[in-house]
């Protein structure tokens, strides 16, 4: 059995505090907001649930958008499995200028990212700097190395079709990342997770529109197939695996 899990990032800080970037020297994060404290807990609980659910089909790889909130969401899963995070541009945010900013996609450099992760996690790990770091796969070659901004929804849908086709050919067929039994995880955003989900279901472009799915923070959807070269089938639509009550 082979499985693919789609995960949306956890709760983002700007939805709770829209002006967060004006505080504590965070202007560089205006268009790349981090998770809230609750968002971090959502990610941790989701990771624990996925590892437990996938005992019989262990996770073999984690692919993630380069945005900070997605990397924070992937972090606990990487720690629990010992797997490095593979940064994939194909999974980045739906490229609406009103969402990503007038200058296009904005990511943190290696040093900036390391500083932000340490800043948000080191105090929680008794100053264990290793726990406050992200583990990356520096050898991973992305399926999509460039993504246009100012995307409308049909363009985003076609982008995710292009990514899914390239991913199947490069990672599944050639590298055989899922050879035998196992699972892979995609950590992405609402719009791109929605478009990838509909593409994997085989839904035609003309029948989809934005907001058709209810995808909660850290919502997960799952597909599976019996073996190589068989058809992917939906196991369940997006649902949350966390409970903060």
From TrEMBL:
Looking up Pfam families in the UniProt record yields:
His_Phos_1
* Molecular function, one GO term: catalytic activity
**Record-linked InterPro entries:** His_Pase_superF_clade-1, His_PPase_superfam, PG/BPGM_mutase_AS, Phosphatase_SH3-domain
Cross-referenced SMART domains? PGAM
The record ties this protein, via Gene3D superfamilies, to: Phosphoglycerate mutase-like
Name this protein carries in UniProt: Phosphoglycerate mutase
Q: Which species does the entry assign this protein to?
A: Anaeramoeba flamelloides
């Amino acid at each position: 059995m082979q499985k693919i899990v789609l995960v949306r990032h956890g709760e983002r800080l700007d939805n709770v505090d829209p002006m967060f970037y004006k505080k504590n020297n965070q202007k560089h994060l205006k268009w790349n907001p981090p998770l809230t404290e609750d968002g971090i807990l959502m990610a941790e609980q989701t990771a624990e649930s996925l590892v437990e659910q996938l005992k019989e089909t262990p996770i073999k790889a984690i692919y993630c958008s380069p945005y900070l909130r997605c990397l924070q969401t992937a972090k606990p899963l990487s720690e629990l499995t010992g797997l490095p995070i593979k940064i994939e541009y194909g999974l980045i945010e739906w490229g609406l200028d009103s969402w990503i900013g007038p200058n296009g996609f904005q990511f943190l450099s290696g040093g900036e990212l390391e500083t932000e992760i340490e800043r948000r996690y080191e105090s929680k790990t008794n100053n264990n700097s290793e726990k406050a770091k992200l583990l990356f796969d520096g050898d991973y070659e992305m399926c999509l190395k460039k993504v246009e901004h100012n995307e409308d929804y049909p363009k985003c849908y076609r982008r995710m079709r292009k990514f899914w086709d390239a991913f199947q050919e490069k990672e599944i067929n050639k590298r055989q990342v899922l050879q035998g039994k196992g699972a892979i995880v995609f950590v992405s955003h609402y719009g791109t997770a929605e478009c990838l989900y509909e593409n994997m279901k085989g839904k035609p472009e003309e029948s989809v529109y934005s907001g058709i799915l209810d995808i909660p923070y850290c919502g997960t959807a799952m597909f599976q197939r019996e073996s190589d070269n068989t058809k992917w089938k939906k196991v369940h639509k997006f649902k949350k695996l966390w409970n903060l009550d």
